[in-house]
Structure formats: structure tokens, C-alpha cells
Amino acid sequence: MSKAIVLSRVSSVGQDLSQQTDEVLREAHKDGYTNRNIIIIEDVESAIKLSEEERHGLNKMKDHINKNPKIECVYIYELSRLSRRQLVLFSIRDFLVERKIQLICLKPYFRLLEFNGEMSQTGSLMFSLFSSLSESEMMLKKERMMRGRRRNKELGRSVGGRPPFGYDVDKEKRYIINRSESVIIYRIFNDYGYNNKSMKDIAIELKEEGYFPNYQINTMRLRVHNILNNKIYIGEFPYPKIISEELYNLVQHNIERSNQNKITRKKEPFLLKGLVCDARTGYLLSINGALNSYFSKTHSGVSIRRSNIDPVVWEHSKMMYERYVMNKDKLLQQIRSAYKTTAKKISVVDQEIKDIATKLERVEESYILGRISKKKSEQLRTRLIEERKLKKNRREELVDLFIKKQSQRKCLILDSINEKLLTHEDKVEIINKVVSIVMVEKPNPTYSIVKVYNRINSLVYVYEVHCWRHSWELIRESTSNKDPHTEVKMWTR
After folding, report:
1. What separation in angstroms does the CA of 35 have from each of 17, 25, 44, 61, 424?
2. CB distance 459 to 452 below 8 Å
3. d(CA 447, CA 439)
4. Strands, sheet with 102-105, edge to edge from the N-terminal-most edge strand
5. Which of 22, 69, 103, 487 is the most buried (most CB within 10 A)?
């Protein structure tokens, strides 16, 4: 015995689903189907908010058809009850036509198939026309919804979803302060601004006290960071003020100072690693980062602060490089290549920043259309904003490098080296091209004797370095026929 499916759907709880089902059932009864042979599928789900993959009614209908070969007909009240998207509607049509299952629509009335199981011209035309109208109607609803949300935002009202931490929404959809959450907000700002606590320390304390139990420490630290950088808490429209502008500005100052300290704490690497030796023993000097010096591991060996020897050898290397080694044409070629590479990198980063902006728009759209939750939207926005911040920082670095390469090019045209434009690696490369080895002798705690052996000629330059005054002078030049490397002993534990 043949069977039929009656598919009813409304987009909101307030609409009468039973009335729609009754009308469609009456049509099925006219065609000779009894309640025993009718499968009723009812759903309350928004065509705007749900993706087609999430449409339970459609999935149920397809499951019944695939499992029951006796189903010959599907009844619907109107075409939009199936879907409002043309692509999906045509997919459903093909699904039914392939199985020779009749589709009967009441408003407006049409049958998709002829009695021989082939698609009728009238049915095909009606299906195409009203599928187009359904999609147009859906787009208009979306536009009205988005326009309403934008209007609410302009008026300072909530646009839906969960309000930011520290706020609630009243009956008029206006933001009001959540007393318990605002206490935590003030505490976070106060601890960071006045009590000099780090973001990690604040996160750990909140976790230990039972706040945000579902957050890991790193996630909690990120949340504290986002709270401290959020201007809504100083009363930015449409949110009421929780903290003072004075406290907010203090926090921003502390954040900036912390970031600068991180940069300054990062010491520049040693320029003369593997080149400095003890003149008395011939041993290579090791590096002590904590004391910022070169030192001998042997008992009563020589040591010298980096600030006393690195500038001497660098100035010497720069002079010799400009005089004997510098190939202006080759260097210009290298700089031009680096110049083009940097410009290309900037272009790539710019495109990545644009892509992130597009992703942010999609997240906002998905949230407005109800495809994702408020929590998911916030998580995605936070991740994308952090990613965009990193990309912008990288772009600033590349722009600085780009400007630097421009300046290097101008500098080379003037036949000189501007050390401010050179990286640490550039300086090390120049030194290694000029200097073979550096011998240090310390006859007196107040000064050292530094002998610089050159790769490019047999001259040895001897400098007297005044340790307390951080100054030096060239005391003599001599010719050395002896390879200084033969005197160097490798120190091993």
C-alpha cells in the first residue's frame, strides 16, 4: 500500500503548526491517503537561522524515503516550507524526481510530476518561479534583521547574544552593570594598575578562588589581557562606566612599559664569539651573558667586558672593510634583492590582514544570522583580532626593514657604512671577513692590550683599551708573519 509524507514547518514558536498540518492533511485525504498511510513530519525551526544541513525536517523526510520504497508523494503547505534557498530546493527536486516521488504544494497549488512520473512543464515552471521568490524573501528578511540590529546598536541597545562580561541587559534591551561581575572587572584593573601584579598572576588568583572554572590558565590570562585593553569599561557608548579613565590610562601605561621592558631586556648577542683569545695562554675566551663579558675558564685567566672590546674591534673592522673589502656594486645588488624581497613580504602580509578582516565580517554575519553562538563568535573574534595584531606588528617590522634597506642603498652610494642601518648579523659578517683572531692581554686592572690580527693583510693593530673610561687608542701597527691560529689552544672541560 502506497504512503505519503506530510511536511509542516513554522519558523517560530508563536505560529500555529497544527493548523498548517491540518490543511495539508485534508489535501492528502482527498487523494485517498488515510492517516494510517501518512507520515507526519512537524518542525519549528527558522529558515534564516539554521543552515540546510541542520534542517531536521528535511533530514527526516529523506531518511523516511530512503528506508520506505512505498512512499509515493510528499505534501507541503508552500514551497518555502522545504527551504528558502534555490540551490537546496533544486537539490530536493532532483532527489524526488529521481525516485519518481510526487511533490504537491498547496500555496500556490501545483504538482511537480505528471501521472507517468515525468516532471511536468507547469510544475517545473512553478517550482522555479516560487523557489526564486522564496530566496528573495529570505534575503529581504535577513536585510531587515541586520538593519534592525544596526539600528539597535546606534540607539545603544543590545543586538542579541550574551552581553560582555560585567554587564546585563534590561527589559528595554539597554546595557546595565552586573554588580558581581563588575567587582571582578575593577579588581583586575586595580591589581594590574596599582598592585603591580602580572596578567598571569591575576589569572592564577582568580582560578584559585573558583572564578572561571572552565578556563585554562593561558586562556584565562588572555581573557584578563582582553579585559584590560577593552575601553567599554570606561563608559564607551553604549556601556555604563565601571572603572575611571585615570585607572584605565594607568593600566595602558603599565602595559606599554612592560612591553618595552621585554624588548630592552633582550640583549644584543656578542659580536666576537669564537674570535677572542687569552694572549698569555692562547685559550679561546668563553662568553658570560650574565656578566656581559668574555672570560677564560683557566685559573687566573684574562677577562674583559664586552662593552670594552666589541666597539674597538667593530670600528677597526669597519675601517678595514671600507678600505680593502667593500665591493659597492655587489653590495648594492644584494641590497636591491633584499629590498624587493621585503616589498613582496609586505604585500603578502597586507593581503593576510585583508583576509582576516574578511573573516571577521563573516563571523559577524554568521552571528547575526544565528549560525554560531555568541560564545563561539567571541572566541573567533578574539583569535582573529590577536592574529591581525601579530600581522600588523610583522608589517611594521618589514616596513622598518624596507626603510633600512633604502637607507643602506643611499649610504653605499656615498661610499660609507652607516652602522645604525646594519643588523647584528651584518656586523658579525663584516668582522669575520676582516678579523682573523683577537688577542687580549691585561697587564693592569685599569686597561687591556687588544691585538687585532687581520685576514686581508699581515698587519697587526694593537689597541690600548681603558676599561673604566670605555675608551681606546691605537698604540702601534706591526707586521706579523706568524699565523696567530697556531698559538690558539682549544679549551675543553
Report:
1. 18, 8, 22, 17, 85
2. no
3. 14
4. 38-44, 3-10, 71-76, 102-105, 110-111
5. 103
Query: Cis bond leading into 238, ω under 30°?
Result: yes
Task: Assign domain 3-141 to a CATH class.
Answer: alpha beta
Closest CA to 445 of 474, 465, 467: 467
Show the CA angle centred on residue 105, arms to residues 99 and 108, nearest 5°: 145
Q: List the single range of 268-277, 296-305, 346-355 with lowest mean pLDDT.
A: 296-305
Instruction: Give the pLDDT of residue 172.
Output: 82
**Residues shown for the chain:** 493
Phi, psi values for residue 186, rounded to 5°:
-60, -40
Q: Is 205 left (phi over 0), alpha (psi -120 to 50) or beta?
A: alpha
- At 78-123, the pLDDT tens digits run 888 888 787 788 888 889 999 999 999 998 899 999 988 889 888 8
pLDDT for residue 275:
92
Helix pair 179-193, 217-228: axis angle to 10 deg: 90
Contact 376, 432 (CB under 8 A): no
> Any idea where the domains of the chain sit in the sequence?
3-141, 167-265, 276-323+425-487, 328-416
DSSP string, 106-130: TTTTEESB-TTSSBPHHHHHHHHHH
**Could you tell me which residues come within 8 angstroms of residue 337 by beta carbon, excluding any fewer than 6 positions away?**
none
Alpha-carbon 211 to chain mean position: 27
When the candidates are 3.40.30.10, 3.40.50.300, 3.90.1750.20, 3.40.190.10, the CATH number that belongs to 167-265 is 3.90.1750.20
pTM for the model stands at 0.35
> How far is 160 from 358, CA to CA, in rounded Å?
22
**Bridge partners of residue 474, in order along the sequence:** 463
First to last CA, the chain: 94
Q: Find out whether 356 and 384 touch, Cβ atoms under 8 Å.
A: yes
